[in-house]
Request: fold
Amino acid sequence: MPGHYGNVKVTIRNLKVVYLDKEKNLIAVKGAVPGSKGEYVNILKKGN
Reply:
């Protein structure tokens, strides 16, 4: 149906955190992060 393009959860691995600012709650990630600008991204700790 029209309007449902990109309505899928995607997992990207091996991205690197290059900058972390705890005071401003900012994280800079190096790599191809899917999604549009201004959207939310879930960042999970590497599993065992």
Q: What stands out?
A: The mean pLDDT is 82.
